[in-house]
Design brief:
0% strand; mainly alpha
């Protein structure tokens, strides 16, 4: 699948570090959480939104606008988690000025990259939707009352 995709040494080191941190957090607090959603959060969101989703990740200070506290999405929406709107933001249909251009690799296009030039686009889209759904599910699971 992704065996032909090349990543920079920095990307690989960051991914491994995040995986180790996330594994620790998952094993202690995340019993019952979807590990795919947590992993997607670690890879795509944690550097800006932080380990706990509070908007205090290591890259937060470098952004033009501070990242949102992702644990308060439902609270900011009258107690309801807007899963479809969150899905659309991740997928690239919703615009978040702090995230910059839509070609940032942490958004929708990240999920649609393939390692095999002959890979069926329908399968790539199916996999992308499943990963985004898992991430949205994880974000819903970290909502604070």
């Amino acid at each position: 699948m992704l065996t032909h995709m090349r990543h920079s040494p920095t990307f690989i080191a960051t991914a491994l570090s995040l995986a180790m941190i996330g594994s620790h957090a998952f094993s202690q607090e995340g019993e019952g959480e979807d590990p795919i959603g947590l992993t997607e959060y670690e890879l795509a969101c944690m550097s800006c939104h932080g380990l706990d989703g509070k908007g205090d990740g290591p890259k937060a200070r470098t952004l033009s606008a501070m990242p949102a506290d992702l644990t308060q999405i439902a609270a900011r929406n009258g107690g309801d988690f807007p899963a479809r709107a969150i899905y659309d933001m991740i997928d690239g249909r919703g615009v978040i000025p702090a995230h910059g251009k839509r070609d940032m690799p942490v958004w929708g296009d990240r999920y649609r990259k393939t390692g095999d030039p002959g890979e069926d686009p329908a399968e790539v889209d199916k996999r992308a939707r499943a990963l985004i759904d898992a991430l949205v599910g994880y974000l819903e699971s970290i909502q604070q009352k």
